[in-house]
Amino acid sequence: MKFLLTNRELNDLRKQAVEDYIASEENKIREIEIKLSQRENCAVYFNFNDPNISAFSIERLDFGTLSERTVIGYYLRTVASVNGADEKKVIKEWTIFCGRKQHNQLVEEFNKSKR
After folding, report:
1. Which ranges of the chain would DSSP assign to H, the alpha helix?
2. How far lies 81's CA from each of 21, 36, 56, 87, 94, in Å?
3. Short-list 88, 115, 99, 108, CA closest to 46
4. Domain residue spans of the chain
5. Which of 12, 16, 19, 56 is a good FRET partner for 86, with 20 to 30 A between their CA atoms?
6. How does pLDDT run across 47-82, given as a tens digit for each residue?
């Protein structure tokens, strides 16, 4: 069993550790790029004209690159209210992990539905 390393062996170990770290970080960067690409290229749809759903707000929450999200607040009519019984609306929210482009499209649709 060898306890002492030569300078060359020590340098080789350092070099290998640095190369492994760089490869690991490059993999993380690729994974983040894939996730960002998926968000920017996803299709998002919310029916703002559904008679059982009444959207009242749309917001963009930004907690960092991969934590950006769009939140739509809406009232959901209960089954009882659909059948003509006492009208009761429940407040709900829908969280969508999408890119800014899709968020802006949703805001546009939301604004059109409020006219």
Report:
1. 7-40, 79-82, 100-113
2. 59, 41, 19, 4, 21
3. 108
4. 1-41, 53-113
5. 56
6. 888 888 889 999 998 876 667 888 999 998 776 555
